[in-house]
Hints:
The chain is of the alpha/beta class.
Amino acid sequence: MLKSCKIAIFASGLGTNALALKRAYKDFYSIDPILITDNPKSPICEEGILIPFTNKEEHEATLLRILFENKIDWLLLAGYMRILSANFIAMFSSWHNNKNQILNIHPSLLPKYKGKDAYLQAWNSKDSHTGVSVHLVTEVLDSGDILVQIPFLIRRDIDLEQFITESKKIENDLYMQVLRRIFQEEIPTIKFQEGVSFATPI
Length: 202
Ligand code: GRF
């Protein structure tokens, strides 16, 4: 088990995934993770830090500064509605021997149904199953390597709202499982490298 593992979570919406991750983290390490939202209307404001969006460059610089100062090992996106730039990802990775340690959860069996209306795309399809994916984050939306996926049946005896609620439960569980696998070193971690500088990689 990792003696310590510092995580940060970014969320823009309701925050069910972010709160599930927060609970799983606290159960393990007895401290709160860093929780950030860019949305003043998100319930996450009550649980974490609000960093309102100004412009992309300034916003990412503020976020990176927080991640650096807190020596964050893993960044978990949980309904964060902004695409991180290649520079952001490279800079964060440069603190971990250039290993990508940024994850996202997406409500589909990627590469199917990328983007923000994934539930609706799956619901409106003729597919018998959809699923949930946890994947590495790149600067291309919902396109990084897939770490884990879990399929589930699209029940047709419920409505769209219930379908989303069911999917969210599966997402919450899967993301917590991934986090526990990180703590238990089943998913390897490169710790934040002491002595690295806060400089933009070329
Ligand atoms: C979920 O659909 C998740 O799969 C996607 O964004 C949404 C976040 O929901 N990445 P919540 O804010 O965690 O409830």
